[in-house]
Amino acid sequence: MEAEADQDAGQEYAERTVIRMKKIRLEMEVPEEVWRKCAVQAAEAGLTFEELVKRMVTDLGAYDQKCHAEAKSWMAACVSSTFSAPTFLKYLDSSFELEYVLGLHDAIQDHLYDLQDNDPMDQIDVRDGIAWLSLQLRDHYHHYRVWYGDECVDKTLAAGMARILAWRKKKWDLVKQQGAVRP
């Protein structure tokens, strides 16, 4: 009787933990020399090219995989390489401050919204918060201008933030296309 209960519990657990698989067909064009080098490196690791790609996808998408951190690091390097011009976006990404600055922007927006819901006395604190957050944002922009000097593409903080917000919107749109919720 006890063995049956254990078997039923195990079967119930297995039914709740069904992993749905997604079958994909990937077609891409790469220079033959590049593909050959990748295929040789995969073979040297004892993998086919398909197994190499599958392992990379699995490691990137699953936190419990042995090479997850390395896959995330590789992905971060790929993202950084897409920012070639000396923009405020590239500066923040390379200094690992992009998410922080986006947080500052979002906090400013929240505070601006709070101004509508507060009485005049409470608005003083809200305005102080906006001033402090704005100062932090301007400080990051100043460091960008110092770092790149005359090479700066974004000549104003507004232009730099517009580029960053457009990039974030594009990123969110791509995430939604994959069926995920907004990050």
Helix content: over 70%
Oligomer: single chain
The whole-angstrom Rg is 24 Å
Structure classification: mainly alpha
Number of distinct beta strands: 0
Task: Explain what you see.
With 183 residues, the protein is mostly helical. 72% of the residues lie in helices and 0% in strands. Helix 3 crosses helix 4 and helix 6 packs antiparallel against helix 7. The mean pLDDT is 83.
Topology, please?
Layout: H1 2-16, H2 32-44, H3 49-61, H4 68-81, H5 88-94, H6 98-117, H7 120-148, H8 157-177
Q: Which keywords apply here?
A:
183 residues, mainly alpha
Brief sketch in words of this structure:
The chain has 183 residues and is mainly alpha-helical. The protein starts with a helix and ends in a 6-residue tail after the last helix.
